[in-house]
Amino acid sequence: MKRAYNFNAGPSALPEEVLRIAQEELLNFNETGMSVMELSHRSKDFENVHNEAQSLLRQILNIPDTYEILFLQGGASLQFSMIPMNFLSDGQIGNYVLTGAWSEKALKEANILGHTTAIAASTKETNYDRIPELSELRLSPEDAYLHITSNNTIFGTQWKDYPTVKDHLLIADMSSDILSKPLPIDKFAMIYAGAQKNLGPSGVTIVILRKDLLEKTTEKQIPTVLRYGIHSKNNSLYNTPPTFSIYMLNKVLHWVNDQGGIAEIAKANERKASLIYDVIDNSNGFYQGHAQKESRSLMNITFNLANEELNKKFLLEAKEAGFVGLNGHRSIGGCRASTYNAVPYETCKALQQFMLKFKGNL
Question: Does the active-site annotation cover 159?
Fold first, then answer.
């Protein structure tokens, strides 16, 4: 069976090795005579999968014991509401750096709840083509937290250096670049990420949260299921978890270790992205990148051709050649190649060659 050249932005490519293991175990997981999707989430067999996934993630990202790892539902979008509900008190401000559509949505949810918010910096005036300089951030003593989106799937930008926020909490939505490179975990009070880019299939959301912050939720008059403390006390099993998604997360984390760990994954991601960026940079303007060079993402490579007619021709011929998911987001158009962890080097090489050939034929 021929596999597609999958550049989907999410849900995205999964490691073929992981898919084959899941296929083999689909009807009989661990000699239970059942699929993992049929197991009780209170069973020993699933508990082992669940706890091992937490342990693997802690090991791979070097997460200290002072941080809790939670497996939640609702995607990163639910976190947009849970964060202000849990961490904003009267007189405090939720401060947001706007670098794209998802940071805008995070700010919007905090505003819907009636909390006081601020915009620490924004690059909207240049259509989010860069990450703000750290010197541009406007902070206040009243800030409860500073929220950033570490990688912007739509616009193809990524934070290279993270702010050091003294006396405040730094919170990051890392849905589209978590597990793609080593992280300075201790810079962050909280990291959260939907799984469907680098961690596994959609359905589970990872929250990495400093344990001392859990006390902030105990007196809040918010729904029980939206309290981080409740999920921590119940090992993320307060209600039925997305068992298959956690099982797949477990398998993907094993695969990361098999690749040599997070440092080797980071090197592979740099090599893959450079294949495509090199074509853009050496095309004499035939391919035009959206993001400024110093802010370019290693996960989402966004570009346009000279006009919309050429964009359509490129995308049509790419589809005919077996490439999937290269259409840019509807809000900015053009083209986008999402080169997440599971996208093979050979797939990126094939796109590089296609881009060169397309240019040469015109």
Answer: no
